[in-house]
Amino acid sequence: MWSARRVLSLVMAAVTAAGPIAVHDHHPAPEAGRALAAGAAALPSGFREQVVFAGLDQPMNIEFAPDGRVFVAEKAGRVKVFDSLADPTPAVFADLTTNVHNLHDRGLLGLALHPEFPAVPDVYVLYAYDAPPGRTAPYWHDSCANVGGNVGGRCVVTARLSKLNASGAETVLIQDWCQQYPSHSVGDLHFGADGMLYASAGDGANYSVTDYGQLGNPVNPCADPPGGSMAPPGAEGGALRSQDVRTLGDATGLDGTLIRLNPATGAGAGGNPLSASSDANARRIVAYGLRNPFRFAMRPGTSEVWTGDVGWNTWEEINRVTNPGAGPVNFGWPCFEGGGRQGGYDGANLSLCESLYTAGGQAGPYYAYNHSAAVVSGDTCPTGGSSTSGAAFYPPGGGDYPAAYNGAFFFADYSRDCIWAMTPATPGGLPDPANRRIFVSQAANPVDLAIGPGGDLYYADAGGTVRRIRYFGGNQPPVAVAFASPTSGPAPLTVNFDATGSSDPDPSDQGLLRYAWDFTGDGTVDATTPAASYTYPDGQPYTARLTVTDSLDAKDSVTVAISSGNAPPAPVIDTPAGTTDFAVGDGISFTGHASDPQQGTLPASALRWRLLQHHCYTLDSCHVHVAQEWDGVAGATFPAPDHDYPSYLELELTATDAGGLSVSTTRRLDPRTVDLTFVTSPPGLQLTVGSTVRTTPFTTTVIQGSANTASAVTPQAGYGFSGWSDGGAQTHVITAPAAPATYTATYVKQRLPRNNFKIKYFSSQEVVSEVALAARVLDGHTHTYWHTNWFNVQPPHEIQIDLGGSYRVTDLYYLPRQNKADGRIKNYEIYVSADGTNWGTPVATGVWPNTTAEQTVTFPVKTGRYVRLRALSEVNGQRWAAVAELNVSGVPV
Length: 893
Known about the structure:
Elements: E1 23-28, E2 36-37, E3 47-53, E4 59-64, E5 70-74, E6 78-82, E7 91-95, E8 108-113, E9 123-129, E10 157-164, E11 170-179, E12 186-191, E13 197-201, E14 258-261, E15 285-288, E16 295-298, E17 305-309, E18 315-321, E19 329-330, E20 336-337, E21 340-341, H1 343-346, H2 351-359, E22 367-370, E23 388-393, E24 409-413, E25 418-424, E26 431-441, E27 446-451, E28 457-461, E29 465-471, E30 483-485, E31 488-489, E32 493-498, E33 514-518, E34 531-536, E35 541-549, E36 554-564, E37 570-575, E38 581-582, E39 587-596, E40 600-601, E41 607-618, E42 621-631, E43 635-639, E44 647-656, E45 662-671, E46 673-681, E47 686-689, E48 692-695, E49 698-703, E50 707-712, E51 719-724, E52 731-735, E53 741-749, E54 758-762, E55 786-787, E56 797-816, E57 827-833, E58 844-847, E59 855-871, E60 882-892
Parallel strand pairs: 15-19, 31-36, 38-45, 46-53
Antiparallel strand pairs: 1-2, 1-36, 3-29, 4-5, 5-6, 6-7, 8-9, 9-10, 10-11, 12-13, 13-14, 14-15, 16-17, 17-18, 18-22, 20-21, 23-24, 24-25, 25-26, 27-28, 28-29, 30-32, 32-34, 33-35, 35-36, 37-39, 39-40, 39-43, 41-42, 41-44, 44-45, 46-49, 47-48, 47-50, 50-52, 51-53, 54-56, 55-60, 56-59, 56-60, ...
Domain PKD: 478-562
Keywords: Signal
Domain F5/8 type C: 741-891
């Protein structure tokens, strides 16, 4: 949810059991290649995906140095460096795992090299810091179980932007970004053409509910203004941190912003739009109103910044900052999303949003796509959930790709596992949202895009690899596919190999492929037939390599790991049982063990656990993210996390033996659900539950114990909110009970505000007393009144009200003033007019009541600006009318 509620979810691919595992390397002769992992990615003709680095632990960001080195940031906090694209074994440049809070979507997410690197050997990192405000890491030790779990609103952290020197030593430039919830964390780092450092960050808010700072225990741990417990309309916490720069009377935070910095100091760069502010953070901000700007890119040859903003349930945005020195630009979150009002926050009637709705000035997205719609018509990417997760520009001057890609904007979606290209309409022009094309479908967990050497697009795969997309304009290399069975077991081990699944995309090469097997990785060709076998002695792990060559000597290689004399371990999850279900907050304990044919019972240090959250668009279409990990333990306990439904949990245990063989087993845990029904009185009005506005009555299925925001949209259709059946405020959080429940929002007719009303005409007034003038019907005081001149003016008596604008009027309220029991006026009429001249027929008639209680006259909807009340006849020769107060209800046209 992730999916529908779209937080970016970071997942590492499961470790597979020992079996036929293949890694590929494609290259035209005579280039030397290295092992590249196989994948099922689909690309345009002539393009090929290759894995350049494998065996990484959740790589999040990749950077290419001018000297050929490649830096990779791993989520847990390690920065690794490869000497070149041909280097299979990285060195650890910096280990920040003690400081980094690696949980859910928090971790080391941003990485950048100084533009003069390596002459200036500074490496910049952006990460979640493992401690609450004012505390020192490690504080949480990557676990929030003791405070209710990672979505309980109590596991609060900050974040750091730091500079690492050539030896990896850290200098902290900024520590800020209070994050109450485990997603919408910090994002990306890039240098602009101006030499300044840009950084992005999310709002740190709850992804499940409309969050204005009302949740958690204690409430408001980030000390958001106005302070203390949060409630509409004045609350400024939660997602409203993204609008904090609009209230410069209090300290400004950096959540939900894009900032531009002096890379030497971390201070706001000169020329920033708020450079004159006395607030240091305000001086840094060039854009705000962002939910989770996980990745952004600098458009070459310009000062433009293009951000991908991960949305909630409906929209993903690509936002464009054309001039970082102007503004700052407000992209509107949480008040706006996808170019329109965000229903959940609009329904909460929050001042920061209501004032933005009135004043305007927010910037719409450059391009937005709906979670339920295809980005490119006919693409094979799944819909139903989305999370934009990568951004990169192809060089406008071109590279190895076809010219159509020159200046193109590439953007990725982690949930859909796809990468698209937005190409310019004209050479050298802006990428045009109308010119979208699918570039990679079935990509492997893309979480960062970068243009590398030769103009190739690279992406980081959260499952553990870095991948390159290459283009072959002429002859294309073959695709080597090797099947091996078995790949492990007692020695001597006879393995059967089969390469008949190999192919070549060029029709002229069909049937002309040549095969070369090197079964022991010593460089010797051991067989040249598609199918072969080899018997391995006991000793060491082996690597078998298949090389397939086409008729023009283009090659592709695939490797298979063989473990002779070593059989894989067998992990077992002892608890929880397979029938275990849960409600949010339930404590779930797990235990397990593993045995190995060679080692016997494996120690706890050989075990690794992961809690996987599956969020589903339908019951059989889901995406996965890692909620928590435990290394080297035989068991632990965690509180069941909150999440949208449909969803479920999967507990995975991986055992690794001394020979490096790993096997995983899993156990599925399903939630206990409950139906919540929402109705209004009168029926048919709208309510907001979560992010969506719906017409009542409706029923939604949620997980027991989950938090669900309900807002009574007010005013609407001439009605104003009166109260909820559960006693909650107009916007409040419902904790889902164990049994089905119905929640009713009661509405009353909404009277129009009278500050714009004026008296248009009155037939007469008694001027002997200041309390009896016509204007008194609008003063809000029941002890004053309009009293006609009873002595000189015959009935009918009338008064006309100018509403100050055009309304669909439905009711008139009046407070008659009676001095005697027999009454004074017998009959009345009510009219509504558009121009105050043409009144037509009355919308209502009646008998003047013998009471001093307020009267409500309801009539069919009539559109107009003017309302007239006429008192028609007299009683016992008396000739006056008296009214204390007048009002109407209606809806603006």
